[in-house]
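In this supplementary section we document a worked example of the pipeline. Step one takes a protein sequence of length 145 as its only input; no multiple sequence alignment statistics are reported here. Step two produces a three-dimensional model, which step three serialises into structure tokens for compact storage. The input and output of this example are shown verbatim.
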Amino acid sequence: MTTVEVARSADAELLDAVNVLIPQVSSSAPPLTRRELERILNDPASTLLVARGASGSIVGMLTLIVFAAPTGVRAWVEDVVVDSKALRGGVATRLVEFALEEAGRQGARTVDLTSRPSREAANLLYVKVGFDQRETNVYRYSIES
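The serialised model returned by step three reads:
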């Protein structure tokens, strides 16, 4: 049985789990420090969701960002990842459904996300839970530090 909860404390368990999951969603993102994780948890626009498997260990995560814009409150989903050992157990579905409920509780009118076409299972999941594919261009500007 998978449970989903809002992460509240940047303890060692959460930091370790996040740093196991990050490389499974991004090959370029460095591991987080405790301070960086605390920044995410303390950001009023960000909600870090974690999924726990039957054993109680963290097997997935999703970041929900809710923000006010002149056209209304919007939400964005980032960094959806399920540990490779827990795939096909409905973990991603539970995370996304919980995120949609949370976005609604926070007053969002819409929830957006992006997914590479090569992530076929993820794309099927998003359609299954009710996302519509939009005709749009996504642009990224990278700020060098």
